[in-house]
Amino acid sequence: MVWVPRATITPEGDYLVLFPYDRGRWYQGKEMLAMRSSDKGKTWSELAVVFDSSQSHHGFVPLIPRGSKRIYAFGTQPISGMVGDGKKGLQENCPIGFRYSDDDGHTWSDVTLIRPENDPEFTGMSCVRMCETDAGTWLIGSHDGIWRRKGSPAPVTTRQYILRGEDKGKTWQLLPGKRPGGWCIEKYDRMDEGTVLSLGGAKAVVFIRTAEGRIWESRSDDDGKTWTDPKPTELVHPDAPPMVFHLGDAKTLIAFIHNRYDPRRPHFDKAARNEVWCSLSKDEGRTWSEPRFVFAGANPEGHIHSNSYLDMIADGSRIHVFLGQKGRQLLYLQFDESDLSTFMTKAGLAAAMKPSPETADGVERTALFQAGEDGYAVFRIPGIVVTAKGTVLAYCVGRKTPGDWADIDIFLRRSADGGKTWEPGEGIRLYRWPIKEIELLYTDTHKIGKTALKPGANPLADINGELLDIYAEIEMGSAEKVVFNLRGSTVTYDGTKLRNEPNLPKPPDSRRGNIEMKPQDGKINVRSLVDRASIETFGNDGRVSLTDFAVHEPGNLDLSLTAEGGEAVVHKIVVHELESAWE
Question: What mean pLDDT comes out for the span 204-215?
Answer without folding.
Answer: 98
